[in-house]
Amino acid sequence: MGGVGLVDHVYKIVKVNFDTAAWVTVAKSYQVKDLLKKIVRELGISVDTSNMDMRVVVGVIRNHLQGKIFILVLDDVWEDDVWIKIVDVFPTNCISRFVLTSQNYEVASLATSNCEIKVEPLGEGHTWELFCKVAFRSSDDKGCPSDLHDLAVKFLQKCEGLPIATACIGRLLSCKPRSYIAWNNVYELEMQSTKNVIPGVDAILKVSLEDLSFYLKSCFLHCALFPEDSAM
């Protein structure tokens, strides 16, 4: 469940109850040393780790957390060995909470018994509510016009209850004229551009990409040159 907004929302609420807190996104092709340096930065430790040996970095983290109540979120973890490789870095004589978000069940299974939470797709009612809130955000009642209802349902069937896909297609349609012809053109574009794409998030994101102007596509592709999780 990497990147789940629910976790981010809860984190912002509960982190005030801890002496220190950090949210770290784990790159798919991560290096342990780089991950630990990122943890140092997110913990707000004022040291330059650029030329530090990994053992020194470990010492910095341990010294900083010693005797503190802390929470660490490792977001979008792809491999179950991430936690295994860094767990010994953290002091054991502290009150601590670790949260791992992942799309990989093997990672989720590392959680203590009864602490594993599987995020299910949204139900039809909540999916519709989210879609209308985004697609008709400029309307006072956030309601879907009757002539667009059936087409909206078709879009949502392709979102498969995934919040990010639902919000993405909603934002795209919110920028279009509120007419059957305009919305149907987007739907037809989806049919053409996603024939060989896995349904769900990837398909919806591809439609949004195809709808961009030439200049924005160039900008988007330029951003894709940056390594995963790098600051831009």
From TrEMBL:
InterPro entries, per database record: Apaf_helical, Disease_R_plants, NB-ARC, P-loop_NTPase
Pfam families according to UniProt: NB-ARC
Protein name: NB-ARC domain-containing protein
Phylogenetic lineage: Eukaryota, Viridiplantae, Streptophyta, Embryophyta, Tracheophyta
Segments forming domain NB-ARC: 6-140
GO-annotated biological processes: defense response to other organism
SUPFAM superfamilies listed in its UniProt record: P-loop containing nucleoside triphosphate hydrolases
GO MF term list: ADP binding
Origin species: Setaria viridis
Protein origin, superkingdom: Eukaryota
